[in-house]
Specification:
Shape: globular
Number of helices: 5
Order of helices and strands: HHHHH
Radius of gyration: 13 Å
Distance between the termini: 31 Å
Helix content: over 70%
Number of strands: 0
Strand content: under 5%
Number of domains: 1
């Protein structure tokens, strides 16, 4: 699956929240970080239903994936704002 396809799976309201609160930069790949837990929940619900946050390595993988998605998430958000402005 392409990065743009994966990013499109995240609903717009969550995408907006992730970007506005700078969650990707603020998350720590541990099971004690509430921001990481939120990102992992979105990942499990919309992208990888079989994801289990059993270890910090699991969270690290998800956070790295979000970091790769970040430019695409920003582009999708810009496009959404342009469409809403019309």
């Amino acid at each position: 699956m392409k990065i743009s396809e994966i990013a499109a799976l995240i609903p717009a309201e969550y995408r907006t929240e992730i970007l506005e609160m700078d969650m990707i930069a603020n998350a720590q790949p541990t099971n004690t970080c509430s921001t990481m837990h939120y990102l992992a929940t979105i990942w499990k619900n919309y992208i990888e239903p079989t994801f289990t946050g059993d270890c910090n390595l699991c969270y690290s993988r998800v956070l790295n994936n979000y970091k790769q998605l970040l430019p695409t998430l920003i582009d999708l958000e810009k496009q959404a704002k342009l469409m809403n402005a019309v």
